[in-house]
Amino acid sequence: MSTSPIRLRDVALAAGTSTKTASRVINGDARVAVDTRKRVQEAVDSLGYQVDLMARSLRKGVDDTVGIVVPTIGDPFFAKAIEEIEQMALPRGINILVASNSRDPHLERKVVDGLLARRVAGLIVTPFSTDYSFLERVSTPVVFLDRHPEGINVGAVIVDDEGSAHRIVMHLASFGHRRIALLTDGLTVKTSRLRREGYLRAMGELGFPVEVELQATGCVDAAQAEACTNHMLDLPVPPTAIFSARSETSLGVVRALHLRGRTDIAFVSFGDFATADVLNPAVTVIDHDPRVLARKAMEMLSERLDGTPASADDFVIPVELIARGSGELPALRAAS
């Protein structure tokens, strides 16, 4: 077994390319020709080359670690996003460090400051409600995921929350529904506010009454969503359709509807979840795929690590309404 260390220039020589191009391939740069990338990877495998992470960190003055901050790690949406980022990062020799702000604006700043103090190479952040203007004085690249931060004019990787919520209400109305209930997270969360705005805009355009008793805007988890759904089902005139603005909230709605035997009530979820397509009826969803958002966020962070400046423009991921049955129940059947 050879004791001589394999260097990047050895890989480049074996692949018939420059050390700069070999470095770009090893660091996951997509802007390299397929056949060149293949040659470099074959050279890496045959020579047994390994990136010296400690030397790279000392050379750069930062760690080869990306920090990820989400409101809660237990939320299925963010768990899938973290998994996708990790799958993209590790083959590139980048480690990830995950932290939760626990939906606490006082803790949120401390968590981000703690990661910056560790000299992470970059951050992917889903903000909760703190003022992020302090990042204007920070050189570390940051990409915001799923929602905009307060206090700083930068873009984010998002979906059209307001427009998609409007689309859901219009979809339910097309099947004859007027008493459409809304369940969402607290309105301190920007995505919740936008989705409620889309709901209200659609209801107003349709001329439908907006009733306070049909809006539950503090469902932070599945248990609270289940309780709120049960309360609505006990109303003298319950809703004929329910719009859940978050996949975790949807788990509570589904549980309540099935336990009460009210699967005749139309239901649409903003965000898919594991059993949505096997229930009876299968759940109609806006396919708000966290993996797609996370993949784009990691791509953007990689570009910024390579020197591309941050942009104030959003990257809006298109979403699809997947009609599976629960959102297509007619109002007459749902009210029976």
Brief digest:
With 336 residues, the protein is α/β, with parallel strands linked by helices. It has helices at residues 8-15, 19-26, 34-47, 53-60, 76-89, 105-117, 161-173, 190-206, 222-233, 247-259, 290-305, 331-335, and strands at residues 65-70, 95-100, 122-125, 142-145, 156-158, 180-183, 215-216, 241-244, 266-270, 284-286, 315-316, 321-322. It contains 12 helices and 12 strands.
Describe the structure.
With 336 residues, this protein is α/β, with parallel strands linked by helices. The chain folds into three domains: 8-50, 434 Repressor (Amino-terminal Domain) (Orthogonal Bundle); 58-158 and 290-316, Rossmann fold (3-Layer(aba) Sandwich); 161-289 and 321-335, Rossmann fold (3-Layer(aba) Sandwich), CATH 3.40.50.2300. It contains twelve helices and twelve strands. The protein has helices spanning 8-15, 19-26, 34-47, 53-60, 76-89, 105-117, 161-173, 190-206, 222-233, 247-259, 290-305, 331-335; strands at 65-70, 95-100, 122-125, 142-145, 156-158, 180-183, 215-216, 241-244, 266-270, 284-286, 315-316, 321-322. Strands 2-1-3-4-5-11 form a six-stranded parallel sheet, with helices on both faces. The chain has a six-stranded mixed sheet with strand order 7-6-8-9-10-12, with helices on both faces. Strand 1 (65-70), helix 5 and strand 2 form a beta-alpha-beta unit. Helix 1 (8-15) crosses helix 3 and helix 5 (76-89) crosses helix 11 (290-305). The radius of gyration is 24 Å and the shape is elongated. The N and C termini lie far apart (77 Å). The model has no long low-confidence stretch (mean pLDDT 90). It holds the Pfam family Peripla_BP_1. Keywords: DNA-binding, Repressor, Transcription, Transcription regulation. One of its GO terms (molecular function) is transcription cis-regulatory region binding. InterPro entries: HTH_LacI, Lambda_DNA-bd_dom_sf, Peripla_BP/Lac1_sug-bd_dom, Peripla_BP_I. Residues 6-60 form the HTH lacI-type domain.
